[in-house]
Structures are given as structure tokens and as C-alpha cells.
Amino acid sequence: LRAANALLQQRRYHAALAVIKGFRNGAVYGAKIRAPHALVMTFLFKSGSLREKLKSIAQATYAHSRNLAYFVFTYKGLLAAQSRLQGKKNPFHSFLAACIGGWLVFGDNNPINSQIIMYLLSRILFGLSRLAVEKGYIPQPKQDPFPLVAALVWGTVLWLFEYHRETLQPSLQSSMTYLYEDSEVWHDLSDFLIYNKRTDSK
């Protein structure tokens, strides 16, 4: 234990150790984020036996955790390599390392990667908008633009749901079906207030 702690304090190994810890943090964070989300979405919207549901949750959690761990490992490793080759850090290093990591780790078009990319895309758009104002590329709005953004986002997503549903992600389709279509159907008090849908036996 002492030898391990002494090794961890060596500055010359800091970059390599940061890559390893980044892998660890990616795995842990991915599991923490995905497990509760998969648990809720699976039991809310997916049919099947308890065993099948638990298997689906485990698979989604593992995929998210693994991908995030691989990405952080790749990103930090490439950052360290570029910095070592050029002798200093450069802002472009971050972009290039992340592009390569994104291509290698998140390039497969599957439900998990798709959700992560959409999550990031929305935050990127907000971030770039704020940066454009901060740098003076666009003028500071006189009024808070958020109400307009909220109106356009909700207007667009409900229009897509109603008329071009196939363009939306399956989990979003499920959520919107539950909210906007299932609320149109009931038979008695049980499936009006207590349950969403009446079972076949009723």
C-alpha cells in the first residue's frame, strides 16, 4: 500500500495515472447515470418478464459505463500524447482528441450512443450561443430569449410527434405516447386515475 501511494505521488507518472483514473471515473459515472434512467424507463415503458427487464437494465448500464470509460481513456491519452509531442498544451488538442474518441467510441449508431449525443448536442447549442454573445459575435439580447427557445422547442417536438413521429427517438416517442395519446383513452375510474391502461381481464 505504501509503495502504491508513493507511486501515485510521482509527478512523472501523473499523465499516465490520470488516464487510468479517467477510465475509472468514466465507468463509475456512466453506471451512476444510466442505471437509474434505465430502471425507470424499462419499468415504465417496456413489456416482458422481470428477468428480461433486469437484463435490459444491466446491458444498458454496462454499455453506457463502458463507452464513457473508453472515451475518457482515449481522450486523456491523446491529450497527454499531443502535449508531450509538442511540449505544451494547445486548445486544438482537446478538439482533436475528442473528435477521435467520439469517432472510435461513440461512432456506432445505437440507442445508448444516440441518447448521449443528443444530450450533448442540446448543451453544445446553448454553450455556443452563450459564447457567441460573450465574444461579441451576436449582440446581448435585450430580453431573456429563453421563453422563445422554450416555445420553439415544444412547438417543434410536438409537431414532429403528431406528424413525423418516426423521426423521433423511440424513448421520446414512448414518453409522448404516454403523455398525449394514452391520456385520451379510459374505460372506468381504474384506468382514468389509478392505472394508465386497463388490463385485458377487465
UniProtKB/TrEMBL annotation:
InterPro entries the UniProt entry points to: Pmp4 (IPR019531)
Pfam families: Tim17 (PF02466)
Name listed for the protein in its UniProt record: PXMP4 protein
Signal sequence extent: none
GO terms for cellular component: peroxisomal membrane
Organism of derivation: Tichodroma muraria
